[in-house]
Amino acid sequence: MDNTNNPQPPSMPPTSPKPDSQAGGIIGIIIILVVLVLGGLYLWGARLKSEETADTADTNGQTAQEVLNASDPATDNLGTQGTSDELGAIEDDLNTTSLNGLDTEVNNINVELQ
Length: 114
What we know:
The chain has helices at about 25-55, 65-70, 75-80, 85-95, 100-114. It is mostly helical and about 110 residues long. The radius of gyration is 39 Å and the shape is elongated.
């Protein structure tokens, strides 16, 4: 077999290289800078908000440390209960224990945390 009659594909004309486009790189850099600036502003705002929350006092004008150190009448009353294991003494202790204000304290805590 003779391969002399094989047609050759036409040669493609050489393509000239495109000049490098700087617009894509510049736009990418601008987008990155905008994202960094927005992230910095977000972190700065979050820091200001956390400092503001930490510096504020509760509704009575007391700081968190003052509230922790304050005595609680309900807790003090629990300490004055009797130590007897007689049924009558236990019933008397239960009758003198007031648990009515527990819900209000929990609701106050929930309001302060929000």
